[in-house]
């Protein structure tokens, strides 16, 4: 609003006129200073105001936390003019997702009254680096067409087979079609885009011209004695077809197709075709189904009675019962041989899920946590990583009457903001793990771990780098030969002993500057055959109770997880190396890439 000069002037001259009537003389007129002052703009009470936001940069899809005042009525958030999806709003905090097509620029918030505010700083929209999931076929002669799958592959400028440039076509952001070039030898495939370079975990095997090549098979799973159609090239003079190490009965239909029978005793493994020109192996494993059901996972991992649960696995056809810790689910549906939908039954308690078929039964490796009615339910928290002292905002439901908050079992100070939001401070001595809240009706835990770092990343900026491999235990040659183990890394075999091979050199060689506070790693367990886990921590620090990567037998699939670890503090006497990695399963292979840093 604006103050009115005319109203104040009228009062002034009225006073002069009254003085004249009383004294019969005009008084000396002193013009007030405010008479010539400009109108004053008074800010409208309740307008939103942005104080800060975090992180300061990130790719499309990044969750950005905006801190300020009077934010409760905000219904629009824009990144440089592009509208974003709002995931949560309180009077002091908004969480919004960087939208598609967003560009670097300021953030603007607007409430339902039309009042708005714009950030003083700009949010920088970054591009995500490329990554390779796999390729098919995994072997073949020069001239073979290879499909490379992954992500962020758009704009690729180079594809190389063991260092030799290949001709290629970028089909879309997730696939590239490349041709094995003349002069290529067996080795890894490398893809370069404007945002970085990535190298495949597995090698492509270059076979002599005329060697067989397996491009696929159908069906991808089946029981012993089932028939499988194998497709490929150069199926001439075929001598053997094997499922893993077991020879199969087969028929050569043509130079591009073979029909084979899954042999007795076969287990989940790749299919190999041998001719007088060589052997070709499929890129993926044929899944041999077993009579009893197997549960590989379920979602969500916790819930109250009545919660719908999606159970994944295999051999679910004909299921006659689904049990939650021994209590029959009265409502369930067999969606397919690999999926069942079930509802948590009345009387269920925390424990494993069991599926029963006419052949047998199978129980989950993990437990389903039954949340009592009215107990806290945690849906998300931000930030996902931080040092002791970091304030974490937890969202969910049933937060009224919270009596306790814990980080991986350690009590924390907390404040109940509302029935759907709690803020808690990471306590001193906390380790990475689940967040738990308790009220009079029970407790609830987060679905994901909160990562505790000795150097916090809150308020720091993330800088991506081209993925740089530092560990590959499968390699027997440089640069990953175990004898090249650099002084900047240590191998700790607290579980089962086996040798690591790491790339020579300091992490600075991966583009990590000396003032970096934390490093972002991608850990990959290569084709686990049984359950296990990895732990990782800065050398000289206490061993964490939580694992950075858990895995089970998933039919040879690679299991990956990204983690953030602080850079070793060289001022600490025990800090002589950067990273300690420990395995708790003896036969697993590990690949670790550095993909970015915080500072």
Rg for CA atoms: 32 Å
Low-pLDDT runs of 5+ residues are: 1-11, 29-43, 478-508
First-to-last CA distance: 45 Å
Q: Which range best describes the helical content: under 10%, 10-25%, 25-40%, 40-55%, 55-70% or over 70%?
A: under 10%
Query: What is the molecular shape?
Result: globular
Please indicate the count of domains.
7
Beta-strand residue percentage: over 45%
Total count of helical runs of at least 4 residues: 1
User: What's the pLDDT, averaged over the residues?
Assistant: 79
**Category from helices, strands and their pairing:** mainly beta
Count of β-strands: 54
Adjacency order of strands in the biggest sheet? 2-9-8-4-5
Q: Main sheet, how many strands, which sense, barrel?
A: 5 strands, mixed
Write the layout of secondary structure elements.
Layout lengths: L4 H19 L25 E6 L2 E2 L4 E7 L4 E6 L2 E2 L1 E5 L3 E5 L7 E7 L4 E10 L5 E6 L2 E2 L4 E7 L6 E4 L2 E2 L2 E5 L2 E5 L7 E7 L2 E11 L6 E6 L2 E2 L4 E7 L4 E6 L2 E2 L2 E5 L2 E5 L7 E7 L2 E11 L5 E6 L2 E2 L4 E7 L6 E4 L2 E2 L3 E5 L2 E5 L7 E6 L4 E10 L6 E6 L2 E2 L4 E7 L6 E4 L2 E2 L2 E5 L2 E5 L9 E5 L2 E4 L5 E2 L9 E11 L16 E3 L26 E9 L5 E6 L11 E3 L7 E8 L12 E5 L5 E10 L1
